[in-house]
Design goal:
With 285 residues, the protein is α+β, with helices and mostly antiparallel strands. Helices cover 31% and strands 34% of the residues. The chain is built from eight helices and 13 strands. The chain has helices at 16-25, 38-45, 85-103, 117-123, 160-170, 179-188, 230-244, 259-267, and strands spanning 7-10, 29-31, 49-54, 57-64, 71-79, 107-111, 127-138, 151-154, 191-197, 200-210, 213-221, 249-255, 271-283. Strands 1, 2, 3, 4, 5, 6, 7, 8, 9, 10, 11, 12 and 13 form a 13-stranded mixed β-sheet that branches. α3 links the parallel β5 (71-79) and β6. The model has no long low-confidence stretch (mean pLDDT 93).
């Protein structure tokens, strides 16, 4: 039986408990779900998950996000501890790659959070594409906000269509959020502010907090209004608002390949804190 191929099946509702139990118990797991818990993500994306079985024993799983303009993320990947890792990953990826071809997915990405993954995904044709860096800001006053006729206010539910539109204009795939992700981010946010110019919503920021640490999760400006100090105004307001709440530490993630973003945060007192994550990619033919 060891030479026989594993059985690969689509994840269905009756498999949900077994998958979640394996994800909880195994040390060989990868989870990158952004705004959703594993349970929430599975409820929404069950059809995008493949399972590997040996007999009636679940040996592994792989789950890809819904594609945006041909780009998709590996959101879930896991195998039973020590059980044929190379073989399980290989056969799961073969099934996932076939599904990608059927869905028109041309690029698949993964954040290398789990230290066991690189060797097995390198064998599958993935390679390092960029680094996600983390920057921190601790204490101090922000620079003065630029003088401009900009109204910054709390965002509301009725602003969400405009916010999602700006997000998709400001970020290229694969960094855009789906509508479901955006609404979940709105529910998790401790701060969501919108910037208006002449009554038009042109930018927003969304931040979260955990205990006494804040995290700037999204900052987006309509491309037609860039380089006018709008991102700085939103960031300055956020720092002031968090300081009033006695949150003196703030973090943000950006790409190593985006020096303009890094310069913006450096001007506001952020520094690289050394927590970097490799971004790997496979371009499909």
């Amino acid at each position: 039986m060891l030479g026989a191929r594993l059985k690969i099946s689509a994840c269905e509702r009756q498999h949900r408990s077994a998958l979640l139990e394996l994800a909880r118990r195994s040390l060989w797991t990868h989870k990158h779900l952004d705004w959703h818990s594993a349970e929430q993500w599975l409820n929404r994306e069950m059809g995008h998950v493949a399972l590997a079985w040996q007999g009636d024993q679940l040996l592994g799983y792989i789950g890809l996000s819904q594609p945006i303009d041909g780009w998709s993320w590996i959101r879930l990947l896991g195998i039973r501890d020590g059980r044929m890792p190379g073989r399980v990953v290989r056969e799961l990826w073969e099934a996932a790659e076939a599904r990608c071809a059927a869905q028109g997915i041309s690029n698949v990405l993964i954040l290398m959070i789990a230290n066991w993954l690189p060797a097995y995904l390198r064998e599958r044709g993935f390679s390092h594409a960029d680094d996600i860096i983390t920057m921190s800001r601790i204490g101090g006053s922000p620079p003065a906000a630029p003088a401009m006729p900009l109204q910054i206010r709390a965002a509301h539910d009725e602003d969400m269509d405009s916010i999602l539109r700006i997000d998709r204009l400001a970020f290229a795939p694969p960094w855009q959020l789906t509508e479901s992700d955006m609404w979940q981010a709105r529910r998790d946010a401790s701060s969501l502010t919108a910037a208006e110019l002449d009554g038009e919503l042109i930018a927003y920021q969304l931040s979260t907090r955990q205990d006494n640490v804040g995290h700037l999760a999204r900052l987006a400006v309509h491309p037609a209004y860039r380089r006018q100090g709008i991102a700085s105004a939103l960031l300055q307001r956020l720092i002031v608002d968090f300081k009033r709440q006695n949150l003196t530490e703030l973090s943000v993630n950006t790409q190593l390949s985006n020096p303009a973003s890094q310069r913006l945060y450096e001007r506001h007192g952020f520094f690289r804190n050394g927590y970097d994550i490799e971004l790997w990619r496979k371009q499909l033919t």
